[in-house]
Write a structure and sequence with these properties.
With 410 residues, this protein is mainly α. It has 14 helices and no strands. The protein has a single domain (21-385), classed as Growth Hormone, Chain: A (Up-down Bundle), CATH 1.20.1250.20. The N and C termini lie far apart (44 Å).
Length: 410
């Protein structure tokens, strides 16, 4: 009801509210990693001890986990019938359900099954979260806002890993209870976001079809190499800690906890670094650091050295902010949803193949070859990052290679 004391010709001031797109994005960013972090922290020990996995089986599982990521381009077609915000909430719920069911199926095929359910929700959510962020956030604040989202992910992960450590070390809980609780929290947060926040619109109506632009080629290449690099950490670095250095589930959880405590502080600062020094410099720092980390994995002789490398490796994931803000600066605003979904598929081309191929052929010979291959991939990414211009814009997407003025929407 209007305030009767206010003159009729005076426009009403909008009420300040915390229910903004930025807060919605932060809450969604926190909801997903809570359950996923519990899944990840327990995975290697659950797979090794209860499902009796070896290197081949863990490679197959991780390849299966990445197939939904490869199919992320299908999100464009789902958007023909669902709003992106609704799609994000449904994907969060599916992620939580998959994690909650994991402990009930401690067998090879049971773990494959629950992993695929979890992964479908996870990868669709990550695709839509990226799309909504680049649509809802102004370009001048995007790196910092993305940094706060990454910090929220880390805080949620800290809570998750703390719960794992507490449940295993002090309460002696079985894996099944931890999986159920982690998945249940994500589902509950998804329902809360659905009920609390209004439906927001992006600044531009999005294309509802698959789009590939020649002028985005460098972003596609960086995304492809990023997917390959991620598997070295997600699949093989953690398995190295368990299989070679004998880390327990609680010790792995403690390492994850250290990773996210550091990231929760560093990510917002990194957003400021990118705003000040640019995407090019941030990517160069990332890939030089990764070359050193992967070579360190190859020749690590003590569990302490491996743990330090593991923390540094995770820290470099924060630099993914630079790739996202690079895309936002060069892309047509109407391409964001389609390009986000296509880029996730590109990211997972290597992710589908590498866990199986490296697990079946390189790891049995020697884990050293897996990490040397990772260093080579980081070197390729470093070369690509040198082609990012200091001031990326539509028409100035690369230093050398195909560039053009923005293509008019069809």
């Amino acid at each position: 009801m209007a305030d009767t004391d206010q003159p009729a010709d005076t426009p009403a001031k909008p009420l300040k509210t915390w229910r903004t797109p930025e807060v919605c994005l932060v809450l969604m960013a926190a909801a997903a990693p809570f359950s996923f972090s519990i899944w990840m922290a327990l995975l290697n020990n659950f797979a090794h001890d209860q499902a009796h996995f070896g290197g081949t089986e863990i490679g197959i599982l991780q390849s299966l986990r990445e197939i939904p990521g490869f199919l992320a381009f299908t999100a464009v077609f789902v958007l023909l019938i669902l709003r992106e915000q609704v799609f994000a909430v449904l994907s969060l719920s599916l992620l939580g359900l998959g994690v909650a069911l994991t402990g009930f199926f401690p067998t090879e095929y049971g773990l494959y099954f629950t992993t695929v359910i979890m992964s479908v929700g996870f990868h669709y959510f990550e695709t839509i979260q990226m799309s909504l962020s680049l649509q809802w956030l102004p370009k001048e604040i995007a790196p910092k806002a993305l940094g706060w989202q990454m910090s929220a992910k880390s805080v949620a992960s800290i809570a998750a890993f703390g719960l794992v450590w507490l449940g295993l070390e002090l309460l002696g809980l079985d894996f099944i209870w931890l999986y159920m609780f982690g998945g249940g929290v994500t589902v509950a947060l998804a329902l809360y976001i659905w009920a609390t926040f209004p439906r927001y619109e992006g600044h531009e109506v999005q294309h509802k079809k698959i789009i590939l632009r020649k002028r985005y080629w460098l972003y596609y290449a960086l995304t492809f190499m990023g997917g390959a690099r991620r598997q070295i950490f997600v699949v093989f670095a953690g398995f190295l800690l368990v299989s070679k250095f004998g880390y327990s589930a609680s010790e792995v959880a403690a390492l994850y906890l250290a990773n996210h405590i550091i990231t929760s502080f560093v990510a917002p600062m990194l957003g400021g670094f990118i705003t000040r020094f640019g995407e090019r410099n941030a990517l160069i720092v990332e890939y030089i650091g990764l070359i050193a980390v992967f070579l360190g994995y190859a020749y690590a002789a003590t569990p302490e050295v491996a743990a330090v490398l593991y923390v540094l490796d995770h820290l470099f994931f924060s630099f993914a902010i630079a790739q996202k803000s690079y895309l936002q600066k060069i892309a047509d605003a109407r391409d964001i949803a389609a390009t986000s979904s296509v880029s996730f598929s590109i990211n997972h081309i290597a992710a589908v193949a590498i866990p199986f191929l490296f697990g079946a052929f390189l790891w049995p010979i020697s884990p050293v070859y897996v990490f040397i291959a990772g260093a080579i991939m980081a070197g390729v990414s470093l070369i690509l990052s040198l082609n990012v211009p200091r001031t990326p814009l539509p028409g100035n997407e690369v230093v050398v290679g195909h560039r053009s003025v923005p293509i008019a929407a069809e």
